[in-house]
Amino acid sequence: MKKIILSIIAFSMFAVSCDDFIEKEERGTQTLDNYFQTAQECEKYTNELTQRLLLSKDWFTLLAPRITNEMATDDAWMGNTGQDNSAHRPCSQYIVTPDNMGDMNSIYTAHYYTIQSANIGLEKMANSPITDVQKNQYMGESLFVRAYCYYELVNLFGAVPLYTKSLGTSDLKLERSPATEVYAQIEADLKESAAKLEGITVNRNGRINKWAAYALLARVSLFQEKWADAKLYSNKVITEGPYSLEENFLDIWNVNNHNGKESILEAQSSSIQNEALGSMLPTLSGARGEDKKNFPSNDAKDVIDGWGWCMPTSDLENAYLSENDEIRRRSTITKWGEAAYGDEVLNPTHKFSLNDNKSGRICRKYYIPVATRRTLDKKDGHLPLNIPLIRLAEMYLTRAEANYHTGGDALADINIIRDRVDLEPKTGISGPTLLKQIYKERRLELAFEGLRLFDIRREKDPTTGKRVIETLMGPNGTFVKYNLSSTDPYETTNTREAQDKGINFDPAKHLLWPIPQIERDLSNGVITQNPNY
Question: Do residues 399 and 238 touch, judged by C-beta distance below 8 A?
Answer without folding.
Answer: yes
